[in-house]
Write a structure and sequence with these properties.
Layout: H1 3-11, H2 13-23, H3 26-41, E1 44-58, E2 61-68, E3 77-80, E4 84-91, E5 99-102, E6 128-134, E7 140-146, E8 156-162, E9 176-185, H4 190-200, E10 209-212, E11 229-232, E12 237-244, E13 251-255, E14 260-265, E15 268-275, E16 278-280, E17 285-291, E18 298-305, E19 318-325, H5 350-357, E20 374-386, E21 402-408, E22 411-413, H6 421-427, E23 459-461, E24 465-466, E25 473-479, E26 499-500
Parallel strand pairs: 1-4, 3-8, 9-12, 11-19, 20-25, 22-23
Antiparallel strand pairs: 1-2, 4-6, 5-7, 7-8, 9-10, 12-17, 13-16, 13-18, 14-15, 14-17, 18-19, 20-21, 24-26
Length: about 500
């Protein structure tokens, strides 16, 4: 029972009931009681996150890895639709940090969204910040992660949203539920990796391994003993909450000899469909039902890259976990029973990726607006900056002595130095950002063909595009081929504020 909230409502009951009396409307009383019951079922959860360096051993080496509460991955948060979360974050690491609640609709709580220098200034080493927000009309799987530099490589965890108390899933209730967090692991400090890329202007080094629930799996050196194991019973149905927490890479995911029934994605239910392979982009989640209908044995879960851009380097390794039936026959002494390995698509199998992404359907009819208030056409891709005069060649290691710089509509985002954009907007602080982000590319060109070198260099700036609250907006995203083809783009609009911020950031 959320007593503080109930007390607050009761204190205001006189005003509400007086209004009901003045209208002499019995429906008003019914509405008031319904609101009380609604909030009575909601809860407030309190959590304490300590960001700290923790020794973590992977791939034979131990690194002082930035974690939450000493855990990698971090704690799983489980709430009900309608609950409020209050998370006090204490930063005991040597880096600035913020925490982003990926996919949560931050309705009137933009200060809790978390992107560094966008909705808040970072939490400095030794400092703390309290996030408070309410889950509103969302059910399924989301996740949380650091939103400062590359701390997201290790600072992340699952955020599971169950139906409201007394309500149920729109599919048969699973016997058990298991988060499956796919990640990337560098055999180095991830902050050093991105700082090297910033210093040289080149692409950052690709990861050394992928992980499932923080473990690379037994295809990597020094990793067999700690491979993640998911137990199931014959005949039972489990819900796997698959999260792509990888920093940069789209991933295929499959389970040997088992079909996966997709029932949700990104905290929304979907029309169920069955597939043998998932494809998730960074930040995406997919809820799947899996039934233990195979002979009792050990079966590999596996994930590897989907990377179709020609010439772009990527981590071409495979992470594994083990789906193990509880009644699997015991191994004969001295003989190891290897798990059954699945068939994974080739890394450039666009047909499989497309077949999966085009299978999603809403479980009910979706009303689309017939009139659009704002049309945004946004080109997204990598650009190249010429080496600054006087700079050494070691700081310009992009193609032909350039520096990489990502852009949207030829604008490469620059982080504000002292104030967050939301703070500057709310307090009217001038000079932090401008509102001239272009709604369409300033120059039209063949976006997927040979691009003129005059269009390679983006303009640096801290630019936003402002929208009126409630505006109906159509956004068209167009990949470009300045360096290589942009096959897939992710646009995050998690916050529910009145301004839409569209940004990319250059590497240097």
């Amino acid at each position: 029972m959320n007593f503080p909230l109930i007390d607050s409502l009761i204190k205001k009951r006189t005003i509400i009931l007086d209004a009901c009396n003045s209208m002499a409307n019995p429906l008003c009383y019914f509405f008031f009681i319904s609101i009380l019951l609604l909030f009575a079922n909601a809860k407030t959860q309190y959590h304490h996150f300590v960001i700290q360096a923790t020794p973590v051993k992977r791939l034979c080496k131990t690194h002082n890895t930035i974690t939450v509460n000493g855990q990698f991955p971090g704690p799983t948060l489980e709430v009900n639709n309608g609950d409020t979360l209050v998370i006090n974050v204490v930063n005991r690491a040597r880096y600035n940090v913020t925490i982003h609640w990926h996919g949560v609709k931050q309705i009137r709580t933009a200060w809790a969204d978390g992107p560094e220098f966008i909705t808040q200034c970072p939490i400095r080493p030794g400092g703390s910040y309290t996030y408070r927000f309410t889950i509103q009309e969302q059910e399924g799987t989301l996740w949380w992660h650091a939103h400062s530099s590359w701390l997201r490589a290790t600072v992340y965890g699952a955020l599971i949203i169950h139906p409201k108390e007394g309500e149920f899933y729109p599919f048969p209730n699973p016997r058990r539920e298991t988060p499956i967090l796919l990640g990337e692991w560098w055999d180095a400090n991830p902050i050093d990796v991105v700082r090297q890329a910033t210093r040289t202007g080149a692409a950052p080094n690709v990861s050394d391994a992928y992980t499932i629930n923080g473990q690379p799996g037994d295809l990597y050196r020094c990793s067999s003993k700690d491979t993640t194991i998911v137990l199931v019973d014959s005949g039972e149905t489990s819900l796997l909450r698959v999260i792509n927490a990888a920093l940069n890479q789209q991933l295929f995911f499959t389970v040997a000899n088992h079909k996966l029934t997709v029932v949700g994605a990104d905290a929304s239910y979907v029309q169920p469909f069955t597939t043998s392979v998932l494809m998730l982009g960074p930040g995406q989640t997919t809820d799947v039902l899996i039934t233990g209908n195979q002979p009792p044995a050990r079966y590999y879960m596996a994930a590897q890259a989907y990377a179709s851009a020609q010439g772009a380097p990527f981590d071409n390794t495979t992470t594994t976990a083990i789906l193990e039936y509880k009644n699997t026959p015991c191994a004969v002494q001295g003989i190891k029973i290897n798990p059954i390995f699945p068939s994974l698509p080739p890394f450039n199998d666009t047909a499989t990726a497309t077949a999966f992404t085009t299978s999603f359907r809403s479980p009910s009819k979706v009303e689309l607006p017939t009139e659009i208030d704002e049309n945004l056409f946004i080109t997204v891709g990598l650009g190249l900056k010429n080496c600054p005069k006087g700079a050494s060649s070691s700081s310009c290691q992009g193609p032909n002595g350039t520096r990489f710089a990502a852009s949207m509509n030829n604008v490469s985002f620059v982080l504000p130095p002292n104030f967050s954009i939301l703070q500057a907007h709310q307090q009217g602080i001038p000079g932090i950002f401008s509102t001239d982000f272009p709604a369409v590319p300033l120059v039209k060109f063949d976006y997927t063909g040979n691009v003129s070198q005059s269009l390679w260099q983006p303009v640096p700036g801290t630019k936003v595009y402002k929208l009126k609250y409630g505006a109906k907006v159509q956004v068209v995203l167009q990949g470009t081929s300045i360096v290589t083809e942009t096959r897939q783009v992710y646009l995050s609009m998690d916050g529910q504020s009145s301004d839409l911020l569209l940004t990319t950031q250059e590497s240097g």
